[in-house]
Specification:
Layout: H1 3-23, H2 39-46, H3 51-55, E1 61-73, E2 76-82, E3 87-93, H4 94-97, H5 99-105, E4 113-122, E5 128-139, H6 155-160, H7 162-168, H8 170-191, E6 196-197, E7 203-204, E8 216-219, E9 224-228, H9 233-242, E10 246-254, E11 266-275, H10 279-298, E12 302-305, E13 308-311, E14 317-320, H11 321-327, H12 333-337, H13 339-348, H14 359-370, E15 379-382, E16 404-409, E17 412-419, H15 424-439, H16 450-457, E18 463-469, H17 470-478
Parallel strand pairs: 3-5, 6-10, 14-15
Antiparallel strand pairs: 1-2, 1-4, 2-3, 4-5, 7-9, 8-9, 10-11, 11-18, 12-13, 15-16, 16-17, 17-18
């Protein structure tokens, strides 16, 4: 019998068993049991007591959880149940429960959710266990749990059936608990520094705030095309114009781009903006925030990621964009400043080049190919070319570059920050250049946003802003090799009809 046939047969048995139990008058999905304790609460409360002390405990523990393992010895059974907090062993005896109740327990299956009442004791091996005085079936599991789900080579099965992955794989549950903790700590960090959390539109008439291809949708009642946002930036900076001087948003963004271990079309970003600041202020804030997160989550400034020890202790390395091309990429000025030589080099490295692409865009491709993968320890790369930074303020001494930096750790971009461009005349010209790029076929070029220019004409205070990729941040702190490991339900192709 093949594994597929065996699975189908087991599923059939489960459904047949469920029908038999219902015919016996048993409710498979009641909603009457009320748990009083989490398993972790019970384990913490009694972990330091001896058996003699546990015998004196009068309080009954009332817990509920999923049946994960059963070892039966005739008229006595050991089992493990698991709730959202932890797992605990339970002990059931026929003489305690009665013959009928005990017989009913033996009809239950791995995966069933049960409610349990009992008192704690220690087994001969010293394991804290509940001696069950009563139990109830709370929810019947009609599908069997896979025995080695976490060991499947087909990782898509784990992502597609995340609910099963969470049941059987404690490490996965811990990843998402850590993710929640990171978000909570970020909010705490920014709130304590006077930032206000806000919400901005996810459906936009004009997608802006980044150079990326958007997803399109349509609003029937208004008869208009809309775009899912690629970034909240331009709305957040409108709020600076309106007088909110420190704002942030933890936001879902959507970019119609490829899928990889680092990219998911739907992802989470933190963006924050502060008036009367420039990108120099953000160097310090970024180091401080990452250092704070590491200490709170790991208790250390050092993070182990895929075999590398990453030291987040400030200060971090800083290199200008062009310095990095030379010192890390191994290029000479002649190679990256001559557009034809730069294009040929990109082609030699296996990357496509479009004839209309500017020198700055070609230099950025060289950076992506030759520099970025080597930035394992934290590196700030600053002073990017103006032509690839349409929303950044020009450097006062050299207008061909901007006061912008990107943070790289483990060979990937973690953050993008810059002094904000608040001159509406310059911003309009930059948008117009982007429109020309789009007309040439550059799908990721920025749209013209006349209303944003109008907002700047009312006067936006000098400011600095930053975006941090939450998913990649979680990857770093949970030693996860793929972005799909840290997104509960990553985008997947539909299952083939079986």
């Amino acid at each position: 019998m093949s594994s597929t046939e065996a699975k189908s047969s087991l599923l059939k048995q489960r459904f047949e068993k469920a029908e038999k139990l219902e015919k016996q008058g048993i409710n498979l999905f009641p909603n009457t049991f009320r748990k009083k304790h989490d398993i972790i609460e019970i384990k913490e409360k009694y972990k330091s007591l001896s058996n003699e002390e546990l015998e004196k405990v009068e309080e009954q523990s009332v817990i509920a959880g999923r049946l994960m393992a059963v070892r039966s010895f005739g008229k006595a059974t050991f089992a493990h149940i698991q709730d959202g907090s932890d797992r605990i062993q339970i002990f059931l005896q026929q003489k305690e429960l009665g013959a009928d109740k005990y017989k009913f327990f033996k009809k239950l299956d791995i995966g069933d959710i049960i409610g349990v009442i009992g008192k704690p004791f220690l087994t001969k091996t010293g394991e804290l266990t509940l001696n069950v005085s009563d139990f109830e079936l709370v929810t019947k599991s009609l599908r069997p749990l896979p025995e080695k789900f976490h060991g499947l080579k087909d990782v898509e099965a784990r992502y597609r059936q995340r609910y099963v992955d969470l049941i059987v794989n404690p490490k996965v549950r811990e990843i998402f608990r850590t993710r929640t903790k990171i978000l909570k700590l970020i909010r705490q960090y920014l709130d304590e520094r006077g930032f206000m959390e806000v919400e901005t539109p996810m459906m936009q008439v004009i997608p802006g705030g980044a150079t990326a291809k958007p997803f399109e949708t349509y609003h029937n009642a208004l008869g208009m095309k809309l775009y899912l946002r690629i970034a909240p930036e331009l709305y957040l900076k409108r709020l600076l114009v309106g007088g909110f001087e420190r704002v942030y948003e933890i936001n879902r963004n959507f970019r119609n781009e490829g899928i990889s271990t680092q990219h998911n079309p739907e992802f989470t970003m933190l963006e924050f903006y502060m008036a009367y600041a420039d990108y120099n202020d953000l160097f310090k804030i970024t180091e401080d925030m990452f250092s704070y997160l590491a200490q709170e989550i790991l208790g250390s400034q050092k993070v182990n990621y895929q075999g590398n020890e990453i030291d987040l202790t400030p200060p971090w390395n800083k290199l200008s964009f062009y310095e990095s091309l030379e010192k890390i990429g191994g290029l000479s000025k002649d190679q990256y400043q001559d557009i034809e030589k730069a294009k040929n080099l990109v082609r030699e490295l296996g990357e496509n080049v479009k004839e209309y692409e500017s020198l700055g865009k070609i230099q950025t491709k060289l950076f992506d190919l030759l520099v970025e993968p080597k930035l394992i320890q934290p590196h700030f790369i600053y002073h990017y070319p103006t032509e690839v930074s349409p929303l950044s303020r020009r450097n006062d001494k050299d207008p061909s570059i901007t006061d912008r930096f990107e943070l790289f750790i483990t060979g990937r971009e973690m953050a993008n920050a810059f002094s904000e461009l608040n001159d509406p005349r310059d911003q309009k010209k930059r948008f117009e250049e982007q429109v020309k790029e789009k007309a040439k076929g550059e799908e990721e070029a920025h749209f013209m946003d006349q209303d944003y220019v109008r907002a700047l004409e009312y006067g936006m205070p000098p400011a600095a802003g930053e975006g941090i990729g939450i998913d990649r941040l979680v990857m770093l702190f949970t030693d996860s090799p793929s972005i799909r490991e840290v997104i509960l339900f990553p985008l997947l192709k539909p299952e083939k009809d079986k």
